């Protein structure tokens, strides 16, 4: 099934819509998206084939478990995972899977998967977590040293974890001594 109506979305975002047929266990990916990420346009034996081929191994079991929930009758599930082996390198994805059709027993027949690139969101969250962590360390160091060298040591440690090109950090002790870092 070619999902041409979604080609505009493909070109303007990294968000995608996939089609899943539970009867044939087939995932269909629009050809333009498949080409852009060097993926196949169909994956049979879902979720196994897709998971073991394209998802970072740390997330495979979780990914398969989400599909087990759908096969057990849940109508909507979400999952975040690290997609590997695409042209631009690994990227974080958040899939929202919505069952569209069910059989007479309430089990899924078809579903739509809305897949969103959340790589930048994950990077931002990591940066915030590092900032919180180093704020605590910096406060502990200041209690024992409270000098400019302590601030510079804190910034040196923090700078190792900052990957964004748009970060400015300034640390000050209670005496007003400060140090800053501009990535």
Keywords:
38% helix; 6-stranded antiparallel sheet; two-stranded antiparallel sheet; 183 residues; 6 helices; 8 strands
Structural class designation: alpha+beta
Strand order of the largest sheet: 3-2-1-6-5-4
Profile the largest sheet: 6 strands, antiparallel
**Beta strand %:** 25-35%
How many beta-strand runs?
A: 8
Shape assignment: elongated
Q: How are helices and strands ordered from N to C?
A: HEEHEHHEEEHHEE
In whole angstroms, the N-to-C terminal distance is 46 Å
Number of helices: 6
Helix content: 25-40%
Mean pLDDT: 76
Low-confidence stretches: none
- Rg on CA atoms, Å: 23 Å
Descriptive report:
With 183 residues, the protein is an alpha+beta fold. The chain has helices at residues 7-12, 31-36, 48-54, 60-71, 119-144, 148-159, and strands at residues 16-21, 26-28, 42-43, 76-83, 91-102, 108-117, 168-172, 178-182. The protein has a six-stranded antiparallel sheet, with helices on both faces. It has a two-stranded antiparallel sheet with strand order 7-8. A hairpin with a 4-residue loop joins strand 1 and strand 2 (26-28). The longest helix is centred in the last third of the chain and has 26 residues, at 119-144.
Itemize the secondary structure elements and their pairings:
Layout: H1 7-12, E1 16-21, E2 26-28, H2 31-36, E3 42-43, H3 48-54, H4 60-71, E4 76-83, E5 91-102, E6 108-117, H5 119-144, H6 148-159, E7 168-172, E8 178-182
Antiparallel strand pairs: 1-2, 1-6, 2-3, 4-5, 5-6, 7-8
């Amino acid at each position: 099934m070619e999902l041409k109506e979604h080609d505009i979305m493909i070109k303007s975002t990294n968000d995608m819509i996939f089609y899943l047929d539970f009867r044939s266990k087939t995932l269909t990916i629009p050809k333009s998206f498949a080409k852009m990420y060097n993926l196949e346009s169909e994956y049979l034996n879902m979720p196994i084939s897709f998971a073991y081929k394209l998802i970072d191994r740390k997330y495979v079991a979780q990914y398969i478990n989400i599909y087990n929930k759908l096969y057990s009758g849940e109508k909507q599930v979400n999952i975040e995972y690290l997609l590997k082996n695409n042209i631009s390198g690994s990227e974080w994805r958040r899939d929202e899977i919505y069952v569209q059709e069910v059989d007479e027993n309430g089990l899924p027949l078809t579903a739509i998967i809305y897949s969103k690139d959340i790589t930048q969101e994950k990077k931002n969250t990591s940066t915030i977590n590092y900032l919180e962590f180093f704020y605590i360390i910096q406060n502990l160091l200041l209690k024992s040293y409270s000098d400019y060298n302590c601030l510079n040591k804190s910034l040196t440690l923090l700078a190792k974890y900052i990957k964004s090109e748009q970060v400015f950090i300034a640390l000050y002790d209670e005496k007003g001594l400060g140090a800053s870092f501009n990535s």
